[in-house]
Design brief:
- The chain is an alpha+beta fold and 131 residues long.
- It has a single domain (23-128), classed as Hypothetical Protein, Haloacid Dehalogenase-like Hydrolase, Chain: A, domain 2.
- The protein contains three helices and six strands; from the N terminus they run αβαββαβββ.
- It has helices at residues 10-25, 34-45, 100-109, and strands at 28-30, 53-58, 84-90, 115-116, 121-124, 126-128.
- Strand 4 (115-116) and strand 5 (121-124) form a beta hairpin.
- It starts with 9 loop residues before the first helix and ends with a strand.
Length: 131
């Protein structure tokens, strides 16, 4: 099942125009666009038996979310892709099955870069050049 392309309202388009200068001032380097995010979600949602739980940091967040709080199911709760600094996937399902290998393989198949963290697998929408 493919993730549908965004249809932005005029208000959302105006908000995105305000976001561009913020991203430039903040020293954020764009790593993903909407097509990349849709491809990422398609890959993750295509993993048989995996119900993704995730943590997310948006570009305007002042700090990382708590490591102990996982949201889900994906993609519920996601903002517009332009706001996502990173999404970290919890490879351990609620029933304690480990999907690390399947997640990495799905992302690699789509050519999506990621990093391994102590709590999950992180996909970056932006990289910070300033602390």
């Amino acid at each position: 099942m493919a993730v549908k392309k965004d249809r932005l309202s005029d208000a959302q388009k105006a908000e995105l125009e305000k976001l561009r200068p913020f991203i430039a001032r903040s020293g954020l380097i764009v790593k993903m666009n909407a097509a990349n995010w849709r491809s990422t979600l398609d890959a993750i949602l295509g993993i048989s038996g995996y119900s993704p739980r995730y943590r997310m940091r948006c570009v305007r967040d002042l700090q990382d979310p708590p490591e102990s709080i996982w949201l889900g199911p994906l993609p519920e709760g996601l903002p517009l892709y332009n706001y996502i600094e990173w999404i970290e996937l919890n490879p351990i399902s609620v029933d304690k099955a480990d999907y690390s290998t399947a997640i990495r393989a799905a992302l690699q198949t789509k050519g999506i870069s990621f990093s391994l963290t102590k709590t999950g697998i992180r996909v970056y929408g932006y990289l910070r050049t300033k602390p």
